[in-house]
Amino acid sequence: MTAALPIPERTAATARRSMSPAGWGTVRTVLRVHRAALVLWALLVAALTGGAVWITELTERAVRAEQEACERAGRDLCDVAGWVGYDGPITWIGLLTGGAFIAVAAFAGGALIGRELDSGTARLAWTQGVTPTRWLAAKLAVPALAVTLGVTVLVLVFRWAWAVDRPPVYADWWSLEAYAARGPVAVAHALCALAVGTLAGLLLRRSLPALGVSVAVMLGLTTLLTSYRGALWPTVTVTSATEIPSIPENSYEVESGTLVHGRPATGLDASVCDRPDVSLERCWDDLGVTGHYVRFHPESHYWPLQLVESGIVLAVAALATAAAFLLLRRRTATNGG
Fold it and tell me: For residue 265, which phi and psi values (nearest 5 degrees)?
């Protein structure tokens, strides 16, 4: 029986490398190059999480005890004055959680892609056996995982803090400081910021311009969606023939106005009939006013609104990601890299 020939040392090392997961070396490179940003991101998530827990578990209890003592003493404004120290910090935590996409956009456009193209580091990596497609995939995968995990933790913690017998002066569910921070919209915006920043970095190939464009585009997209958020899901409409109808407590009012011959007429209010010679009722009749209406979203519409907006933002993220890979492929093919 013939004895097996020993494998040369170089051949064995090559075999071990071939059995390693494809692209793992590129992922390790991304982790090493951007470890400072990842550590800073982890510290930010930990700080906001710790702050929310501290405020909810300690500050809220202390303020509630102070309020009860105030009520027993018979003083005024006991239901508002003591909550100032609670409401401000928790509001900022909500704003920072919902606005985390700004930091992600700045990092993706400036440090993740723009700086590497600006300095030539990316092209050096492409000459070391790493294809441009694999390089970009690793560049996106590692931050995407970190962003998804970090923002998800912040959203879950903020939802928990929101549910713990929050004070009555705190923001409504549809407010700027609470809406995104309690649902998947925050995660979707952060992932979209990563994709938009990557595309901007590939387009401009300069860190500072890419950073500025990334942040500006994401702020514009968020502002647009916030302005039209009420139209993302069908509203509930209530009408009244005599006065502006009331809506359920904690509802998001989208629009209100008068009905002229049974149809909504915005911008028509009592000031139009401010005439001393004609009564308000007679003026309404002359104008053809038949009632009033209010369009609103009840609190039960929170999740439909969240899911529709998240879908829109993730679609933008997918388009930006596809455009980034297509742009990189064309440029490297043109330049022979």
Answer: -135, 100
Hey, is 245 helix, strand or coil? coil
Angstrom distance (rounded) from CA 161 to CA 222 = 24
Cβ count within 10 A of residue 267: 7
Contact by Cβ (8 Å): 86, 174: no
What are the helix (H) ranges across 174-301?
Answer: 185-204, 207-227, 280-287
pLDDT tens, residue by residue, 22-65: 456 667 777 777 788 889 999 999 999 998 888 877 766 666 66
Nearest Cα neighbor of 158 from 181, 176, 189, 175 is 181
pLDDT in tens, 169-216: 456 888 888 899 999 999 999 999 999 999 998 998 888 888 999 999
Measure the CA–CA gap between 223 and 53, rounded to whole angstroms.
30
Q: Cβ(280)–Cβ(202) under 8 Å?
A: no
User: Please, which residues have CB within 8 angstroms of residue 166's CB and are 6 or more apart in sequence?
Assistant: none
Q: What share of the chain is helix, strand, coil (3-state, %, to 5)?
A: 70, 10, 25
pLDDT band at 14 (very low <50, low <70, confident <90, very high): very low
According to DSSP, residue 7 is labeled P
